[in-house]
Amino acid sequence: MPFASCSNRFRWPDGVTSQKPVDSRVYIDLPGLIALRHEARGLSFLPRAALRSPHSGRHASRLRGRGLDLEELRQYYPGDDIRRMDWKATIRTGKPHVRTYTEERDRPVLLLVDQRISMFFGSRHKMKSVTAAEISALAAWSAISSEDRIGALIFNDDSVFELRPQQNPSAVPRLLHALVAYNRRLKVGGSNPGNDAQLNGVLLKAEKLCTHDFFVILVSDLKGLDKTSVKRIKRIVRHNDIMILHVFDPLEKHLPPKGRYVVSDGQLQMEFDAGAKDIQKRFSDHFVNRVHDLSDPLKKHLVPVIQVDTVHPVEDQIRRAMSGRSGRTR
After folding, report:
1. CA-CA-CA-CA dihedral for 116, 118, 120, 126, to nearest 10
2. DSSP H helices in 126-272
3. What are the average pLDDT values for consecutive 10-residue runs of the chain, which has 330 residues?
4. Which residues contact 319 (CB under 8 A, 6 or more apart)?
5. Cα torsion at 198, 252, 134, 318 (round to 10°)?
6. Residue 260 has what pLDDT?
7. Which candidate, 133, 159, 134, 145, places its Cα nearest to that of 109?
8. What are the structural domain ranges in the chain?
9. Is residue 270 within a helix (H) or strand (E), and if so which, with residue range?
10. Cα 37 to chain centroid, rounded
11. What's the confidence (pLDDT) of residue 219?
């Protein structure tokens, strides 16, 4: 795929035009996202079986995959699948008839990629923003290899890049360039306090854009998800499929080893003892409760919420979740 020709036509948001060498654990680069094309071979974001998790109770999350279009209603021939028998036509005509179908040639895939300041965090291996970008690149390459249309809403705290789903050869390069541009804007010590409401704004854009049979993939730490978010997701899922990939860092789940630590939000700071058992438990319980709060309103609508950490290779985590091995998405 000719990336050079596309980059000449692409206008970097906010004048971002350079590709300086960076630490790949902190910022993404274009060659790294391009290289994920090889990891996406044979990778599908549609699970082979229903997705289950310890937090989903008896509910299983299902995605429809490609649909089938009725091609013709014709007389039965020996060897035809009996399950495709059209009994109404058979009774009406007095002769066995079957329905034949053709698979839909493509399906619009829409990525919602979070690059807000809350994603610019990583305690051990890499930033949540890097993990989200890698997931999105894998999804884009997977969609194109399946001859599906690919589009995206890439957002930070104050702007949204929109790429409507298309099968044009330049779609993935444009998407990757935008991902790099938005990712490079992230920095600590800025004046941007974060914008939790931006998630709902992006979901509203997706709701208006997704007419029917879209496959929506939200990649985010879900900061700002609330009742309004759930309502918008419910409206999207009426006529489309949606998968949520919840990106988290291990430090959000478990405190570091024993010792005294000083933490700050940039303005205030506090010191605490990580070895205190009550603090360890309260911290872990807070994460578990947040996972429940995120997933419980969605599980009855069979929306899969898959957790992806910032430590293990994202392609391995996606393959494991989609193959149904261990049946776990959390």
Report:
1. -120
2. 128-145, 171-184, 198-209, 227-237
3. 36 46 86 93 73 44 59 81 88 90 74 96 91 97 90 96 89 95 86 85 96 93 92 92 93 76 67 72 79 78 89 92 55
4. 43
5. -110
6. 73
7. 145
8. 3-61+108-327, 68-103
9. strand 269-273
10. 17
11. 97
Query: In this structure, what are the phi and psi dihedrals at residue 189, rounded to the nearest 5 degrees?
Result: 80, 10
Q: What torsion do the CA atoms of 260, 264, 270, 274 make, to the nearest 10 degrees?
A: -30
Contact 100, 74 (CB under 8 A): yes
The position carrying tokens 């040639």 is 105
Structure tokens given for 289: 């409760």
C-alpha 99/C-alpha 90 separation (Å) is 11
Return the bridge partners of 309, or none.
248
C-alpha 248/C-alpha 263 separation (Å) is 18
Q: Quick one: fold of 3-61+108-327?
A: Rossmann fold (3.40.50)
Dump strand ranges (E) for 77-147: 97-103, 108-114
